[in-house]
Amino acid sequence: MAAAEAPEEDYPIEPSFENRFREGKARAVIEEVLAAKLTGTTYIADNASQWCREISDEVKQKLKGLNLPRYKFAVQTVIAEQRGEGMRMACRNLWDPATDGYAQATFQNETMVAITAAYATYLY
Question: Which tens digits make up the pLDDT trace of 83-120?
């Protein structure tokens, strides 16, 4: 009686080269959305939370449109009044540097500064 052969796995452990998260493409998406939403606007504190939500949602949808199978995205946007002060944004993540990634972009005008960060994690 011949030994049964093990079936070949067709479930990818890692994304293929062409389906990996690309920081440059993601940054371009973020810059495009920030410019479209905020160019010509003036900082209004009451509108900032709505702008953050709209920008984050649109960036997330456009990143999903890149058709990167099994990637999940989290997007964070911070908008602050421009007062000539410095601002820092930091994050810590526990992820696989071989597959997961991060991109951020900044928009600035006379009245505001906006920072959007997108995190991409690959589901194993």
Answer: 988 888 888 889 999 999 999 999 999 999 999 999 99
Tell me, what CATH number does 38's domain have? 3.30.1140.40
| In the block, residue with structure tokens 């010509």 | 40
Assess contact for 106 and 114: CB atoms under 8 A.
yes
Q: Does residue 15 fall inside a structural domain?
A: no
CA 72 to chain centre: 10
Task: Flag whether 103 is in a domain.
Answer: yes
**Residue 103 forms beta bridges with which residues?**
118
> Can you point out the beta strands (E) in 26-100?
71-81
**What is the extent of the structural domain holding 98?**
20-84+94-122
Main-chain phi, psi angles of 91, to 5 degrees: -150, 160
| 35: its two tokens | 């410019």
